[in-house]
Amino acid sequence: MLSKEKLFIGGQWVAPSGREAIDVHNAGNGAVMGRIPAASERDADAAVRAARAAFEGWAGLAAAARADYLQKIAEGLKARADELARTIAQEVGMPLKLAGRIQVGLPIANFANYARLLRDFKWEERVGNSLVVREPVGVVVAITPWNYPLHQITLKVAPALGAGCTVVLKPSEVAPFNAFILAEVMEAAGLPRGVFNLVSGYGPAVGEALVKHADVDMISFTGSTRAGKRISEIAAQGVKRVALELGGKSASVVLDDADLPTAVKSTVNGCYLNSGQTCTALTRMLVPASKYEEAAKLAAEVAKGFTVGDPLAETTKLGPLSSQAQLERVRNYIRKGMQEGAEL
Predict the structure, then answer these.
(1) Long-range contacts of 135-138 (CB under 8 A, 24+ apart)
(2) 245 carries an active-site annotation
């Protein structure tokens, strides 16, 4: 069983201020796969203070030097790719092969991509009589979801570090172990102390403490609309910069002249990726009434091709949902749909 007892703050693994721990469940069988610390407001304060103390030095470092660190991180993640894929497959439920390509492959590529972009980025640009200067925002808090955990972390952390910002990461408590591996990679890459900090815990406790902290300049959040609204409310009190990526409701619209078998197959594939646990997952397919019966039959046939099973099994094409709570949420949607006239 995985057990993480410390937080990564100021370049060191430190004990949390409290003793509360959070159980992390294996998506494949529901068993407890490990535990992480439930950080408190005091831990959040320590992490932000460390990030603030490191900011001037990191922002003043040459962009090429920051790019070198990002490249080292990409290489460190690549060296632990198999471990990461297996970890995320168990945390989230995505089949192992897909987890390797998507959940791990994309973060490795994106750290490397930002390293390349950083080397050619124009920090100053003359526009008419004005000089446009691009500067780091400051201390950035990144609060990330469980469905594409390391990928979403990377899309916040890599550009922030590249820009010269320092970061405090609060990963989802549902899928947190990949974030701890990333922190270990950061440490091995020799990242200066306080540039990257990791605190784990629940949103209402440590998340809100980070958002309202006076030394935080920006919050980047991906998650539910409800949580996004709460973050906006708190951040507004300090007029902080906020970037929100919230829930989606994506339709697949199939027109009369479409190749129906191709359109239906593409729609079902887009719906089933990561067991539907994707913000851009297609949630419904709209077809001409005259083609409804044919489309429904085609969709059922495509769905039968998805082998459901253990995410670690070679033959699995569709893994489990990430948690019992997520399972109940989906079942409720199905029940509600049937009550409103849907056909199962």
Answers:
(1) 135/59, 135/164, 136/55, 136/59, 136/163, 136/164, 136/165, 137/163, 137/165, 137/217, 137/218, 137/241, 138/52, 138/55, 138/165, 138/166, 138/216, 138/217, 138/218
(2) yes
